Amino acid sequence: MFGTCEKLMTHFAVILTAFLVSQPLLLLLICGPPTTPHGDTTYYSPMLVHASAADEAVGKWARQFGDELYLLAQKITKSQQIKEKYKEYNARVELKNGTELIQSITAKVSKMLARKKDAVRCIQEKAEIVNENFEYNQTYAESNFTYYSSKYSTFNGNSSEQLEPNEAEYAYMYRDMQLNPDTHFYNISVDTEHSSVHVPSNVWDRQATVLKTIQWSEQLDEVFRQNYQSDPALSWQYFGSDTGILRHYPAAQWTDTRANKLDADTYDCRKRSWYIETATCSKDIVILLDHSGSMTGHRNHVAKFTIRSILDTFSNNDFFTIFKYSENVSGIVPCFKDALVQATPENIETFNSAIAELPDPSDYANLTQAYEHAFKILQNYYINRRCNETSTCNQAIMLVTDGVAGNTTEVFERYNWGNGENGTSRMNVRIFTYLLGKEVTKVREIQWMACLNRGYYSHVQTLDEVHEEVLKYVDVIATPLVLQNVEHPPTWTHAFTDKTYDPMNSTERRPRLMIAVGVPAFDRSYRHENSTNRRARLLGVAGTDVPVEDIDKLTLPYKLGVNGYSFVVSNNGYVLLHPDLRPIGVSRNSISLSIAAFIIEHLFQSNGKMNPNYNSIDFTEVEHLFEDQSPREPGESILNIRRAMVHHEAKEFKDISVKFHYDKMRRVSEEKQDYFFAPLPNTPFTLGIVMPSDYGKTWIKVGDQVDRNKHMKVNISEFFVGENWKVHPDWVYCKYHYLEGHEFKTPEAELREFLEKMMKLDFKFPEQYEDEPNRNSSANLNCGRKTLDDDAYYCNTELVHLLIFDAKVTNFSYGVWKFDNEQERQLIERFGATLRFVATMSGLTRWQFIYGEVEVDTDQEFGDYHTTAIDETWYKSAILQHHQDNTESFVYSVKHYNDPLEDSDLKVTASHAIFPRDGGKEAPACVVGFQFSHARMWDRFFNITAVDNCNNCLPICTDDDIDCVVIDNNAYIVVGQNVNTTGKFFGEFHGDVMAAMVQKGIFQSIEVYDFQALCKVESTSPSDGHSLLHPLKVLGLAWKWLIAHLFWHYQRIQWWVDGAPFMEYLDNIEDEYVAVDSNSQSAAKPKEDGDDGDAIFQEPLPEPVYKPCDMRSTLYSLQPESLVGINDYVEVPSTRPFLVKKIPNSNLVLVVVNVLMPSRSVRLTTEPMRITSYESEYPCYKLNMSFYERRRIEECYTKDDEEELFTYCGNASRLGLTVQLLPLTIILMFYLTRCFMRI
């Protein structure tokens, strides 16, 4: 019995001992680490290992430095007082419903877009009616008619383009303009009472059909004015005719964007995306290029230019490929293989470059094999897209050749004329043939191919004919659309830059991106019984531009909150609107890791050029999900989100882990986001919003502040006294509909005017677009909508009330600064603090100078550099710090070393987020902060760390044995012994230590990718001296000069024979041709002979060339919890030992490195590196994007039973001209050759 009791007592003693030993650990696990009086956490090792003396010494330095900074921050920001004011004024914290919010936003945006579409439909209706009833008087038109010409009308004695001397007699045709700068139209001088007409250089405005169009379209001015007066937010309105003329409103002189003013004005509305897409819908095109031995010399050059012109008519909704054929058929770009690729700018440029580098043609032509190959490719897409079920597929083959040698009937019978039996099919593929050259045979065969396959035959003899002949396919494809004669389906384009926007010289905050909506107009005259023209013709396209910025302003950014944003995605998955979309290129030198810091200041300079891919940036290229660990390999989550948006679905995806980067992609954090999106009705677009999964669910809700303050007899303007405050420049609080006549120097001046109006009893808060009954009925098109008064305005009621509330909360704290006591003064002076600020969710930013405002040389101060409140880096950082740390800590940062100074002295910016609580919930309300001297901070830090806290167990920081560095939560140096390291990445100086901290989990390394970068292409050409001294170089230039003059004289003779003006387009594929028609007002001025001779020996330095490239940046994020348990030197093989301590109440970490110990040479960087690990070259490594899901444009009309009755397929009427010119050409070539040989 006693034995049993003894055993029980022994077991009990063991259990009791284990419990007593483990009790502190259990308490630690259950209750968490204890906190300091300031709320900072004191960490203990889970194993209760005592800290070393050196570790404790570093900990004392960190605590003293952190406590002083925290006391300073509390004193100067008065954060607790501001937080109490939110409670005093009854700020309510409410939940945000993402589903309801996206519905509200899409309703607002849809209403705005519908108004733009209505305006265009009114233009289209008017155009059809006027054209159908217009009686053209040719005598009057040619002798008395005048119009406003965008190019030749004068304003203050100057015109956009000068008439040629022989055209001076027609100067009477162009009325003088009366223009005035208009704020709404980007301060361009315009005439809002009239429209003006642009005529491209290859179109003669005195030709009968062109002159008729200019004359009748003048009646569109009435609709233009009515549209603008009922919706003053309308941008440019226009009507593009199938003759090539563009009537645009308001009238303005044409903006000349040509680099060389002697070049032709090649702008043609028929090649713009809004015209082409409206006329032809989506297209699948296979181009076949004859590359047989007969296609040499001039024919080869014309063929390349023909294909180049065809590609210019494609848009993002088109898919195409090009094959060259001779004895065999092969792809132009091998990696594209047998796939149709999307007609993005980069894919088009890839094909153009590949065609320019083709070897000389050779062998015979096997056209049957080429057709067979093209039909098989189109058949795959025909089946996969179920074209036989939907009848909405436009498929075509375009043949570029100098003749055909065989019969291809069998191929057409198998694929295009079959009945489904014996393996045949009826794909209804259109055939367009371009016959090149003057001496051609078997014309009927190639014409027959087009006519029996619903296509068009063109005979192209010279370069000047290419443009017009290529455009004829557009009218052919548009024929079924015209014949149905009922629906006018609107077409929305992808993003493009405004014609008047100059990225090199613009001072605008953001690039001027537009989308356009176009509606087709039909020429119905072919249906008249007495009509002499039985051709179904597209009259033109009516359109208007919609600034993408106008969409952004309606997405309620204040309600999305900090680190939330909106975006718009097209049916192709391309982004029109996204905070990470960068249309203007940022040049990046191609660098390797060993020279990462070489000329680093040039890495982030804007080159002022538009990124060639800016309107085809895919959603997967701007959203960085955490699951995407390899470049160009998006994970399933992002593809699912993209798939739903492309297919116009309304969905939500929550708690998606993302790589949230900010501060120019230099800082990163792993965050969770919620995605909500819904379609924009009657458009190909889907609008989405993103909100942080945690703090993005709540926001501050306030009541009617205007009426409340009126009732209390408080003038709300008193909350906005002084000049040291700003409102977000991109947000709309209240605004006049007509900007012209209501100009304000600043957004603050505009707000002040409306604040005064709000105090009046009759003030109302109208919306920009009021609801209309029966809005969705297409039969209720209102082209006589009520016009607005000159002083009409609109407001965002909710945002205005929130702004007034924020101004009231912060106003008391930003009067005249007073020190509470002498200790406070000494503390602030010790750190050299000079300025304090607050920024709120409503976009309000206030700042105050502690010692009074100081005049600076640049006349710029804090509020001029930091105007965007929740979009500022220090605002984002403070919110993230609160979310991650959940304490009263402050975020400290210094400018990145590559950024310019805001002041003569380097400043440290500290910020802290205030989250008021209500009903158990908290929401981000504002961020307070201050700026102080970096030099004073540096002095104070090294004063603190010069104290020995452990009896020589550790050198002090002023010794050379250790290196003491204070880094922020992204490992950028805030304080270092070498001041020149400030703002630089810690790993550049202690790469081994940084790598060890990543290995130990103290920092997390996160790779982010930049798929919008531009890399400078280094020139490989020899020196100028070498080129000029080499005799073969001189001979080559002379021969180039001879060829240019040969074509110049030849085209002059051709003009004399034709008796009509023409235009020779510049072609940069091989040779340069200059517009030479001296008898046409639209042709470019020919060069003088002497100029050409001098040009042989004058080769100017080429402009820098940039090409798209992909970049990778490895960024770092602090993991504070990993510091728990580190109580001694961190030792990793081949790494210098180091001590690391978190500085309390901050985002800072103190790292002490023993520099006497040897280490491996490691140098890390956060600078972007070009990705060179792809298996294929650019752009082949992006080929997989061509197979992402896309939604085809609906409402396409591709065939009509009556098509053969109202169309034609081309002719060979110009063959006779070839025979006439042949002898003359031979004589001219003989004469010029003899002249050259005599030199």
TrEMBL record:
<dbReference type="Pfam" id="PF13519">
    <property type="entry name" value="VWA_2"/>
</dbReference>
<dbReference type="InterPro" id="IPR013680">
    <property type="entry name" value="VDCC_a2/dsu"/>
</dbReference>
<keyword id="KW-0479">Metal-binding</keyword>
<keyword id="KW-0813">Transport</keyword>
<keyword id="KW-0325">Glycoprotein</keyword>
<dbReference type="InterPro" id="IPR002035">
    <property type="entry name" value="VWF_A"/>
</dbReference>
<keyword id="KW-0106">Calcium</keyword>
<feature type="transmembrane region" description="Helical">
    <location>
        <begin position="1215"/>
        <end position="1233"/>
    </location>
</feature>
<dbReference type="Pfam" id="PF08473">
    <property type="entry name" value="VGCC_alpha2"/>
</dbReference>
<keyword id="KW-0109">Calcium transport</keyword>
<dbReference type="InterPro" id="IPR013608">
    <property type="entry name" value="VWA_N"/>
</dbReference>
<protein>
    <recommendedName>
        <fullName>VWFA domain-containing protein</fullName>
    </recommendedName>
</protein>
<keyword id="KW-0107">Calcium channel</keyword>
<keyword id="KW-1133">Transmembrane helix</keyword>
<dbReference type="GO" id="GO:0046872">
    <property type="term" value="F:metal ion binding"/>
</dbReference>
<keyword id="KW-0732">Signal</keyword>
<dbReference type="GO" id="GO:0005891">
    <property type="term" value="C:voltage-gated calcium channel complex"/>
</dbReference>
<feature type="signal peptide">
    <location>
        <begin position="1"/>
        <end position="39"/>
    </location>
</feature>
<keyword id="KW-0851">Voltage-gated channel</keyword>
<keyword id="KW-0812">Transmembrane</keyword>
<keyword id="KW-0406">Ion transport</keyword>
<dbReference type="InterPro" id="IPR036465">
    <property type="entry name" value="vWFA_dom_sf"/>
</dbReference>
<dbReference type="GO" id="GO:0005245">
    <property type="term" value="F:voltage-gated calcium channel activity"/>
</dbReference>
<keyword id="KW-1015">Disulfide bond</keyword>
<dbReference type="InterPro" id="IPR051173">
    <property type="entry name" value="Ca_channel_alpha-2/delta"/>
</dbReference>
<keyword id="KW-0472">Membrane</keyword>
<feature type="domain" description="VWFA">
    <location>
        <begin position="284"/>
        <end position="477"/>
    </location>
</feature>
<keyword id="KW-0407">Ion channel</keyword>
<dbReference type="Pfam" id="PF08399">
    <property type="entry name" value="VWA_N"/>
</dbReference>
